[in-house]
TrEMBL record:
It comes from the Eukaryota. It comes from Mortierella alpina (Oleaginous fungus). This is Peptidase A1 domain-containing protein. Belongs to the peptidase A1 family. Residues 99-396 form the Peptidase A1 domain. GO terms for biological process: proteolysis. GO terms for molecular function: aspartic-type endopeptidase activity. InterPro entries: Aspartic_peptidase_A1 (IPR001461), Aspartic_peptidase_AS (IPR001969), Pepsin-like_dom (IPR034164), PEPTIDASE_A1 (IPR033121), Peptidase_aspartic_dom_sf (IPR021109). Disulfide bonds join 130-135. Pfam families: Asp (PF00026). Residues 1-21 form the signal peptide. The keyword Cell membrane does not apply. The lineage of its organism: Eukaryota, Fungi, Fungi incertae sedis, Mucoromycota, Mortierellomycotina. Keywords: Aspartyl protease, Disulfide bond, Hydrolase, Protease, Signal, Zymogen.
Length: 400
């Protein structure tokens, strides 16, 4: 998923590094930088979800208004805060909204910052032939500078809920993630709008085969596993929160699990559904007590917030008092018999608008029967996206 705001490029964190653990052991890691000074646009994020997940529609009326006005300040299910939440300042910047890391495409490699996204299955970047201002603000791929580029020519396009979109053609080249290099079909955008203000040059799908825009294009992970490039068929995701680990750099670790980043043992849950990293959430708890909800849902690095059913969201927020000088306890998601917590201080996500005493809640409704659990959860839980047969998801509390 991509996010937008009106952020000058200079305010973007430039500290990116890539480390190769050991090529003989087939482990590779990409650092995930957090976008700093990000001013979230709540409705933009919410409305984008409608197009991101076809067949899923929520907040449709509000989104219609948003798309018309592009400036809606309305909010439902917000957690109120007035700037002091416990002993910590409210989150009003660096809201753990978007993470990105560097990859290379072509020979010699051209470098791109991409948003690694377990909720989609395509890789796309801008083509040098795209001249829109949005394209010009990003790294663009020049195919004639790559000796390994092969034309494909099939049309490709995608539209997001905030009406940003990209379109172009498929091509094939060597995609190199921190030393794992595979020939890969990618999409090259020759037109796109609405991406000017995001630091990512494109998207890198970590979803499954079958969920791609053009049917039959194999994912990077599927190619890497088939070509025996990885020690373990996994991507392990560590996206530490700004609040709890100031300055810590996140990590997407391909082919291995970093056991130093979590506490206790990993709990593995089966993945069902073939399109997404879909798992069964057995319970939804607040402050140690079940709220009586369960659902199937997905764990999605490309979504910032957590979207549960309307009733579940309502039940939770009815328990959260307006005054926030005490810390009543975490929200927990039960998976595989274990509870994984989103601490109370992470529930207010960001101010609804600058200076507002209201914060958008990290936990939203709208997803009846199909929860979408994004970075607000992942920044507290180490997640191992395991492509074994059958696939499974490993979870453990992040070590802070
Ligand atoms: C793309 O690369 C070719 C070959 O190096 C070069 O001639 C051309 O100017 C480049 N295109 C742009 C727009 O930079
Ligand atoms: C969008 O992509 C689809 C294939 O996924 C293609 O059929 C359609 O023509 C494309 N549209 C544009 C405007 O490129
Ligand atoms: C892949 O990228 C790494 C740096 O991350 C570089 O050392 C290596 O030579 C590249 N491999 C290929 C085949 O481009
Ligand atoms: C982790 O698993 C090992 C082996 O099953 C067990 O001995 C240990 O107690 C577990 N640790 C925790 C914290 O659950
Ligand atoms: C997913 O698996 C769980 C447990 O294996 C099962 O209870 C649930 O009904 C399944 N959901 C779907 C949508 O297949
Ligand atoms: C899940 O919730 C439904 C009601 O929505 C309930 O009937 C069912 O027993 C619950 N399942 C579990 C495993 O708690
Ligand atoms: C925030 O609310 C608390 C409790 O209601 C109050 O004590 C505090 O003075 C308020 N802070 C500001 C900055 O308004
Ligand atoms: C949270 O749980 C503690 C201990 O059980 C209890 O004292 C407190 O009132 C609870 N807070 C809320 C808001 O439910």
């Amino acid at each position: 998923m991509k996010l937008s705001s009106f952020l000058p490029a200079a305010a973007v964190l430039a500290a990116l590094s890539v480390s190769v653990a050991s090529s003989t052991r087939k482990e590779f890691s990409v650092s995930a930088a957090r976008r700093l000074n990000y001013k979230p646009d709540y409705w933009k994020q919410v409305c984008k979800m409608n197009a991101r997940y076809e067949n899923l529609r929520f907040h449709e009326e509000e989104c219609a208004v948003y798309l018309k006005q592009r400036a809606s300040k309305g909010v439902t299910l917000s957690v109120s805060a007035n700037g002091t939440i416990g002993d910590e300042p409210a989150l009003d910047d660096g809201s753990d909204s978007e993470y990105y890391g560097a990859i290379q495409i072509g020979t010699p490699g051209q470098r791109f910052l991409v948003d690694f996204d377990t909720g989609s299955s395509d890789i796309w970047i801008d083509s040098i032939s795209c001249g829109t201002s949005s394209c010009m603000s990003h790294a663009r791929f020049n195919e004639s500078r790559s000796s390994t580029f092969q034309k494909d020519g099939r049309l490709w396009n995608i539209t997001y809920g905030d009406q940003s979109s990209a379109a172009g053609r498929l091509g094939s080249d060597i995609v190199n993630v921190s030393g794992i290099a595979v020939r890969q079909t990618i999409a090259l955008a020759t037109s796109e709008t609405g991406f000017a203000d995001t630091p990512s040059d494109g998207m890198f799908g970590l979803g499954f085969n079958g969920n791609e825009v053009v049917p039959g294009v194999q994912t990077f992970m599927s190619n890497a596993i088939q070509q025996n490039k990885l020690e373990l068929p996994v991507v392990s995701v560590y996206l530490p929160s700004q609040r709890r680990a100031k300055g810590a750099v996140g990590q997407y670790l391909f082919g291995a699990i970093d056991h130093t980043l979590y506490t206790g043992n990993l709990t593995y849950v089966p993945v069902n559904g073939t399109a997404w990293w879909q798992v069964q959430f057995d319970d939804f708890r607040f402050n140690g007590t079940s709220l009586g909800f369960n659902s199937t849902g997905i764990v999605d690095t490309g979504t910032s917030l957590i979207y549960v059913g309307d009733e579940a969201a309502k039940a939770l927020h009815s328990l959260i008092p307006r005054a926030m000088n005490s810390v009543p306890g975490p929200v927990e998601f039960r998976l595989g018999g274990k509870d994984f917590a989103v601490p109370y201080l992470d529930i207010p996500f960001a101010r609804v608008s600058e200076g507002s005493e209201y914060c958008v809640s990290s936990i939203q409704g709208g997803q009846n029967g199909f929860w979408i659990v994004g970075d607000s959860f992942i920044k507290n839980t180490y997640c191992v996206f395991d492509h074994s047969t059958p696939p499974r998801l490993g979870l453990a509390p992040l070590k802070y």
